Amino acid sequence: MNSYTGILTFVTMFLFAWPVLAGAAEMPAVGSVAPDFTLPANDGSKVQLSALRGTWVVLYFYPKDNTPGCTLEAHNFAKDQSEFSKRKAIVLGVSVDSVNSHKEFCAQEGLTFKLLADTEKKVAAAYGSLNNLVVTKLAARHTFIIDPQGKIARTFADVKPATHSREVLAALDALVASPK
């Protein structure tokens, strides 16, 4: 291997490993109290997590509005809203995009649940869901099921947008069937 190839290999490995090397802090543990927050929503309201005690909360972080994976994931959560309602669960999406971006995304895609704007990136960081991607920071694709007492009941770090909504519904069913 010549020096040019060696340098190119190192740079390539560094760039592809960068999100891992500069990845998010640790996610809150199952059983711990979910970090509280207040964030603005696409509809102009403010959502405070602690005010939602008494209901199940599906808090899902996603990288960016209007991208293929994020749009697919949001469509599936929207399609399954009646199923979440039957389980007395609300879905909240969080990204570092602005309220206006969320408003446009919801209008364009017909989304009926709230998207929260974490423009200061503090909530994503508190949930271990902030990735440093070389020149920008985006939310990692993580999901947390928060129980009615405000504790983390389940975490998802390896999310596949196409099947994730159904995976969360199955997890909610299991959690409700066998409360701790």
Q: What does the secondary structure layout of this molecule look like, with pairings?
A:
Elements: H1 3-21, E1 38-40, E2 46-48, E3 56-61, H2 68-79, H3 81-86, E4 89-95, H4 99-109, E5 114-117, H5 122-126, E6 130-133, E7 136-139, E8 143-146, E9 152-156, H6 164-177
Parallel strand pairs: 3-4, 4-5
Antiparallel strand pairs: 1-2, 3-8, 6-7, 8-9
What's a quick, concise take on this entry?
It contains 6 helices and 9 strands. The chain is of the alpha/beta class.
Polypeptide structure, described:
This protein has a five-stranded mixed β-sheet. Strands 1-2 form a two-stranded antiparallel sheet. Strands 6-7 form a two-stranded antiparallel sheet. It has a single domain (3-177), classed as 3-Layer(aba) Sandwich (Glutaredoxin). It has 180 residues and is an alpha/beta fold. The protein contains six helices and nine strands; from the N terminus they run αβββααβαβαββββα. It has helices at 3-21, 68-79, 81-86, 99-109, 122-126, 164-177, and strands at residues 38-40, 46-48, 56-61, 89-95, 114-117, 130-133, 136-139, 143-146, 152-156. Mean pLDDT is 88; it is low at 4-24. Strand 8 (143-146) and strand 9 (152-156) form a beta hairpin. The longest helix is centred in the N-terminal third of the chain and has 19 residues, at 3-21.
